[in-house]
Design a protein that fits this description.
By secondary structure, the protein is of the alpha+beta class. Helix 3 (106-118) packs across helix 4. It has four helices and 17 strands. It has two domains: 4-173, Alpha-Beta Plaits (2-Layer Sandwich); 179-257, Immunoglobulin-like (Sandwich). The chain is 16% helix and 30% strand. It has helices spanning 31-41, 59-62, 106-118, 133-146; strands at residues 4-6, 10-13, 28-30, 49-51, 84-89, 130-132, 148-149, 153-154, 158-163, 170-173, 179-185, 196-201, 209-210, 219-224, 226-233, 242-249, 253-257. The strands form six sheets. It has a four-stranded antiparallel β-sheet, with no helix packed on it. The protein has a three-stranded antiparallel β-sheet with strand order 1-2-3. The chain is globular.
């Protein structure tokens, strides 16, 4: 991933950055200035930016910030009017962005999954599930936290940018039923390592989906949006059995605490 420099401003380093040692900043894009240019001269209400890049900071480069990165668009007027202008970032400040060799980055994989099924917001409009700027952000944060990057740990998605629109902007309609990220927990948390957690569609006679084996963490699930019977059982009777009949699990994320 090509990095970004951040020190009150964000600069994107192009793929050929560093080829010319005499003028290295010629290959640097001033993201903030470019974004303001787009917002100032474009009449579109929505501008989403997806920065799939490392966010490491090179101290030596930061000491020499008396330069002007190249702007992709110079504005002729300041931004005005209602704008929904979110910025989705592939990792936290100071960290690398990652991807498996020869495949899409983990950030891009998560983004695709959100537009395919996981990024909608409930409830649906009739039978239509829609992904909007707010639900997409919530889904990306949750999905990246669940992404275990080899030798690194859980991923992350930072979201910035401002919105002054009355409602989040609808970006995409899903072709069918949305899927949701759920999390089943039990209080006290120390009981989880002994709990048999389960769920199934509310009121159905389908077989239970059971977490095997038990572990000390909450159970993170992905299910079609709907109503579920959720339960916790204990073989040793050390903790009370609990259930939540008809738990509605809607996208992008629904927690269920037993």
């Amino acid at each position: 991933m090509r990095p970004r420099l951040e020190w009150e401003k964000t600069y994107l380093l192009a793929a050929d950055y560093g080829e010319s040692w005499g003028t290295p900043w010629d290959k640097v894009i001033d993201f903030d200035k470019s974004r303001l240019g787009f917002l100032g001269d474009c009449q579109a209400t929505t501008l989403c930016c997806f920065l799939d890049a490392c966010r490491e900071v090179n101290i030596d480069q930061l000491k020499n910030l008396s330069f002007g990165g190249q702007s992709l668009w110079d504005t002729s007027a300041p931004p005005s009017g209602d704008r929904d202008a979110r910025v989705f970032k592939a990792t936290r400040f100071g960290e690398k962005a990652h991807g498996p060799p020869g495949k899409e980055s983990y950030f891009m994989q998560a983004l695709i999954r959100c537009f395919e099924s996981l990024g909608a917001g409930g409830p649906p409009h009739g039978a239509i599930w829609s992904v909007d700027t707010e639900s997409l952000g919530r889904a990306m944060r949750q999905l990246m936290r669940r992404t275990l990057i080899p030798d690194v740990g859980p991923g992350a998605c930072d979201i910035g940018g401002a919105s002054n629109t009355p409602e989040p902007t609808m970006l995409h309609e899903l072709p069918g039923v949305a899927c949701a990220l759920g999390e089943i927990a039990y209080s006290p948390e120390t009981a989880l390592q002994h709990a048999q957690l389960s769920y199934r569609l509310a009121g159905s006679k389908d077989s239970l989906t059971i977490r095997t084996p038990a572990c000390a963490d909450s159970w993170k699930i992905e299910v079609p949006a709907g109503s579920y019977d959720v339960a916790a059982q204990f073989q040793n009777g050390q903790y009370p059995a609990r259930s939540v009949p008809g738990q509605i699990i809607w996208p992008p994320f629904t927690p269920c605490r037993l």
